[in-house]
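Thread: Newbie trying to understand structure tokens

Hi all, I'm a second-year student working on a class project, and my supervisor (Dr. K.) asked me to get a predicted structure for one chain before our next meeting. I've only ever worked with sequences, so writing a 3D structure as a token string is new to me. If someone could post the tokens and maybe explain what I'm looking at, I'd be very grateful. Here's the chain:
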Amino acid sequence: MTNMNKKIHDMAVFIEFLAGSGLAIFFHMVLHNEMAAYLTFGIGILLSLVTYLVREDIGKTKAELFTQYQQVHAIPFALAQISDPECQAKAQELVAGTLKNIALLQQGFIPLDEMDFYLEGARLADQALHRIKAVDPLSPGWLSRGSLINFYQANLRAVTRGIEITRIFITSREDLGDPEVQKVLLAQYRDNIDVRLAFRDELPSTIDIGGSEVNSSFDFAIYDERAVTAVFVQTGKYHGRKTGQAGEVAKYLHLYERLEHSAHPVALENERIVLASEVQAVALAS
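---
Reply by user tm_fold:
Sure, no problem. This is what the structure looks like when written as tokens:
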């Protein structure tokens, strides 16, 4: 059908050209009016060109509208063809999830599953030029998961290049005595990562960011103050998200500063990570 419309379009241009040329010949050969012949021929050529361009524009507009129509109605048409009630309910659930992800994309966030989340973090760490600011919940198996190990290896490569990394671990005072937790802290401390501790009971459940209180998973990283990866508070199909939107990066920088204000520097004492303030207190007492 498209080829047929194209042929008709080309034929119309040819017929318009022949009609204009025929009138010009008629004025020149029959009426012996050269001026009228030239004017008729010129006007005929211009009209043929104008109608050709108009038809081209209409054709392109029609194609674009048809494409947009298909995009808008593709999902409703597909849903309308599902007759099974259970399949229809599942389809509606998938559409709702897709719309939720599209809303994230509209805000400048890219949703990522767990593997892609840490791969993206590793990629950003390899591209970092100055500093990485990270906040992580501290658990005994922090360095036992494969995806986290690869992510941490990218951190070590960044440190080797001279990138400054500060990691605030969110934990509790009770967990600080756990040997596995100490193993994680010692490894990072000895790898020249600026380790700090923030205790959950000292942090508010919600933190004001940009004039609004928000819940946070306290699991995110800021790369050169230009990109952020953050874990969702409640993970589902997607583990976290990435954004490079300046406004959103600024919000996470503000959140980091709030957490940094509550975080404690650490020190190494007798092959254990302890609060630097405790070491100073013992030194002063002695």
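A couple of things are worth pointing out once you decode it. Residues 1-81 form one domain. The chain is about 60% helix and 20% strand. Feel free to ask follow-ups in this thread.
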